[in-house]
Amino acid sequence: MIVLVSGGVRSNKSLFAESLINNNKVYIATMKFSDKETKKRIVAHQKRRDKSWSNYEVYNNLSYNIEYNNKEILLDCLTNLVTNELLEGKDKNYIIESIYNAIVEISKNTDKLVIVTNNVFEEVDDYSELTEDFLEVLGKLSVSISQIADYVYVCEAGICINILEGQK
Which pTM was predicted? Predict the structure, then answer.
């Protein structure tokens, strides 16, 4: 089962996503410590999770070689993973293909894969080339994942709604 959870910054999407994981809990963290704000957010997320979670820090090269069999996995978050890959100078199409393929392979061997992503597509402005690349990669991945997901939730103001209800 694949579940995609999307929302704006601080919309409680990660907290909601964590509530969907019940057994054999695996947390894949993708945010790098880069400043006081990211450290504060990472520590807050860590404090929320109890010792029943197995934690992996995967900043790039999402792999399906980690032991995921019969686990419930939370990937938090796709946005940071894409950012990290782009900042390493990787090709956009390679990023899309490699992350998508890893998600498909991971989902084949798990009981549940919950993926958190950010909704960053509502502002229109004059962006740098890197930002345009980021929006393109994240957008294409989000669409591709939503097409194979069993559930797609959108979170706003702490309320998360399954937008696929009645769609499949």
Answer: 0.89
